[in-house]
Design goal:
By secondary structure, the chain is of the alpha/beta class. The chain has 15 helices and seven strands.
């Protein structure tokens, strides 16, 4: 399998990295470090990484030029890795689209997409209705802009033709699992030892877990259960009494637990969750302020506006104006 014309050194696997929009520095650094360690551990220079040349990002790519060369679409490569932390805001150039189509149609080349990388293929019409694995911060925007997409809440998915990863630090789990299908168990174990990986999260694990954000195993299980109920009932909030009943303790016990572990009452914590959800929707979607207030459990616009201003110091309308200014000035949201 190859991504272009020409030949590679025998036994070497060339992984071409295409950055269609931004420069995901964290993911690039993790990827480069991971494969460099694989080569050291196996005592072979088997995996070679290169960046697909893109005139838009050539200056930024110079940060990684010491470790990764720049390749052309017509160069040989065995795997195409697409990284992005942004959703498509403009069409891929016709020249790039044609080169990408040539690569995908002419060869059975495996694909790996990180975070929103898969969305650039879907936006270009190269994949239709494909299940997507992206970071949770993009779920609302994808649901609005790509309603036919099936969003998987898991960390990653590995398959022969295309593998998907949510990005950020889940890339470490993904790469370790991916390499375990290609290298000996000895190499994989040595790699984990070198990188201090004591546990690889499975593909099916969810991206967002209340117990993780609240301190892992040390948190009281009843609080975790209560927060899961809150997160699953944003649009039609439950009362504190109802939550206490569902987690099998009294209201007073629930309030004591929240004050002890989180220094806040359950009702206040619930309100903060709903307001944080509202802020995320204001920043990432085109839903109206009234719609956002309703889906976040506020029965009226004035109640939503006053609650939002009390918590964030600005109104929902001001938040939306800030988003518009960032977008028009070209800043990342």
């Amino acid at each position: 399998m190859s991504g272009g014309q020409g030949s590679a050194e025998k036994g070497h696997i060339r992984i071409a990295i295409w950055l269609p929009s931004d420069i995901p520095v964290l993911e690039l650094a993790l990827c480069e470090t991971f494969f460099r360690q694989v080569n050291l551990t196996s005592d072979q220079n088997q995996y070679q990484l290169g960046l697909i040349r893109n005139t838009t990002h050539n200056d930024a790519l110079s940060l990684f030029s010491e470790h990764m060369p720049c390749w052309e679409w017509t160069d040989h490569f065995d795997i195409l890795l697409i990284m992005s932390n942004l959703l498509p805001v403009e069409n891929i150039s016709q020249e790039t689209l044609q080169l990408l189509q040539n690569v995908l149609s002419g060869n059975e080349i495996p694909l790996i997409t990180v975070n929103t990388g898969i969305m650039w293929l879907i936006d270009a019409g190269l994949y239709q209705n494909f299940p997507v694995v992206v970071h949770w911060e993009h779920w609302d925007e994808i649901g609005e802009s790509y309603p036919r997409c099936q969003i998987l809440p898991q960390l990653y998915m590995i398959a022969d033709s295309i593998s998907l990863c949510a990005g950020k630090l889940t890339l470490v789990d993904f790469l370790h699992e991916w390499i375990s299908h290609r290298e000996s168990s000895r190499t994989v174990n040595m790699l984990a030892d070198q990188l201090c990986i004591d546990r690889v999260r499975s593909a099916e694990e969810k991206q967002r877990l209340p117990a993780v954000t609240l301190g892992g195993d040390d948190i009281q299980p009843r609080i975790t259960m209560a927060i899961e109920l809150m997160e699953n009932n944003i649009e039609e909030p439950l009362s504190t009494d109802e939550i206490a009943e569902y987690v099998y303790i009294s209201r007073r016990q629930l309030e004591r637990l929240f004050k002890r572990y989180l220094n806040v009452l359950p009702a206040r914590y619930y309100l903060q969750l709903r307001l944080q959800r509202a802020q995320h929707l204001l920043r990432t979607t085109g839903k109206s302020i009234v719609q956002i207030g309703l889906v976040c459990g506020f029965s009226s616009g004035p109640h939503f506006s006053s609650s939002y201003k009390s918590y964030y110091g600005i109104t929902p309308r001001d938040e939306r104006t800030k988003r518009f200014r960032r977008k028009t000035s070209g800043e990342n949201l």
